[in-house]
Specification:
globular; about 325 residues; two-stranded antiparallel ribbon; alpha+beta; 11-stranded mixed sheet; Pseudouridine synthase
């Protein structure tokens, strides 16, 4: 796959780009220095803007990241379901139905994201494309990259090879192989006690799953004792509550950053991205308000410390 042209996910899709007004991209601001002097009295920068990071309303159009004759990629907001199910009668925000109405045509889901996860979601525009894309996902021909904010500071790089059972599997059901590569991209420490710890430590972790088990990234991060902030099923309640109180928002801090695949009919390589709006090279906050308001206004101005590994990854993020 070609190297993206810009840093930390700021790139245009290959081939026919979507217009900038659809992508919601804005110009970069000036660089800032990440120090604890930026923090407010509760440990968070005064520039953290809880009011601008509002949830996306179900009446707003979805942001289209890529569209051709066969497939469409959109930014899925956190809190939206991919499609209706019989178990979610109270829900009102569904990507599949909203996109169908927005495009005026049927769309076909080919993979899923959890309700709390934001980021790139791919749909097919006809049945042949759906079959081809589902096969590509099943054969692990689609490379997925996620960003998560996790409790604590994990190793700089690690492989989690830990078999998983489906959540609803019987006790005697065999576990299925599951493997995820983790890269620590940034760290943050606030001198505020939470739970039994004298300070609060979190990290930005890039997760590359090599298998597709349900809740794989969430469960693997729990397995290595670095659960995702905001994960009410696999996370730590005290930390989730503290961050929700400080940020004014309860969400799962997991974001589907990119999908890399080959267009099944044209053979064109695609790097489909829903970038998070801050840059570890320059600490530039890019106001991409229509896509990732919570990352932009709640996390981008935190005093993150990025490593050399993050610098090289930001310039070009391919993985084996």
């Amino acid at each position: 796959m070609p190297c993206p042209s810009s840093t930390f996910g700021w790139t245009s899709p290959l081939g026919r780009p979507v217009a900038p007004q659809q992508q919601g991209l804005a110009g970069a601001g000036s660089a800032t220095t990440a120090t604890m002097a930026n923090a407010s009295s509760i440990g968070l920068p005064a520039s953290v803007d809880r009011h601008r990071a509002r949830p996306m309303d179900s009446t707003e159009p979805l942001s289209i990241l890529w569209q051709d004759d066969d497939l469409v990629a959109v930014h899925k907001p956190a809190g939206w379901l991919v499609h209706r199910t019989g178990l979610d009668a109270h829900e009102t925000r569904f990507v599949m139905q909203t996109l169908r109405d927005q495009l005026g045509r049927h769309v076909f889901p080919v993979h899923r994201l959890d309700k709390g996860t934001s980021g790139v979601l791919l749909m097919a525009l006809h049945a042949d494309a759906a079959r081809a894309l589902c096969e590509a996902f099943a054969l692990q021909q689609v490379q997925k990259r996620y960003i998560a904010m996790v409790r604590g500071w994990p190793e700089a790089q690690s492989e989690v090879d830990h078999a998983l059972k489906p959540d609803d599997a019987p006790a005697d059901a065999p576990a299925q192989p599951a493997r995820t590569t983790l890269y620590r991209r940034g760290t943050l420490q606030l001198d505020i006690p939470v739970d039994r710890y004298p300070s609060t430590r979190v990290a930005l972790v890039e997760a590359v799953p090599h298998t597709g088990r349900r809740h794989q990234i969430r469960r693997h991060l729990k397995h290595v004792a670095h659960p995702i902030i905001g994960d009410t099923t696999h996370g730590k309640g005290a930390h989730n509550r503290w961050w929700a109180q400080q940020l004014g928002q309860q969400r799962l801090w997991l974001h589907a950053l990119s999908l890399q695949l080959v267009q099944p009919f044209s053979g064109q390589p695609l790097n489909l991205m829903s970038p998070i709006p801050f840059d570890p090279l320059t600490r530039v906050q890019n106001q991409q308000a229509s896509l990732n308001q919570d990352w932009a206004y709640l996390l981008a101005d935190m005093p993150w410390q990025f490593t050399e590994a993050a610098m090289s990854w930001a310039a070009c993020p391919p993985h084996p």
